[in-house]
Write a structure and sequence with these properties.
92 residues; alpha+beta; five-stranded antiparallel β-sheet; 3 helices; 34% helix; elongated
């Protein structure tokens, strides 16, 4: 019985110590309107921050990772755009 308990405790500790356990979900903060676009700050699970702008009239969303170039996609899905922005941002 002690071996099972020790094994269970080791698995619990390993799961909590893994990098995946420390990742936070993607969060999108609305920073308000600027003319015909709405500005957002995106915080990625790895700690990166990405600026994002939703251009209503053009039907596109653009994002700029820190130190990167602007990338635009057509569409209005903010969650998908935030996910793609985090995937394409450069690690620190």
């Amino acid at each position: 019985m002690k071996i099972r308990t020790a094994l269970a405790m080791a698995l619990i500790l390993a799961a909590n110590a893994s990098p995946a356990a420390k990742l936070q979900p993607i969060s999108v903060e609305d920073r308000g309107l600027d003319g015909v676009q709405r500005i957002y700050n995106v915080r990625c699970p790895d700690g990166q921050r990405v600026g994002m702008a939703h251009h209503y009239k053009e039907g596109r969303i653009c994002y700029i990772p820190a130190g990167g170039h602007e990338t635009c996609r057509s569409g209005n899905d903010l969650d998908l755009a935030a996910k793609l922005a985090c995937q394409q941002s450069k690690p620190r």
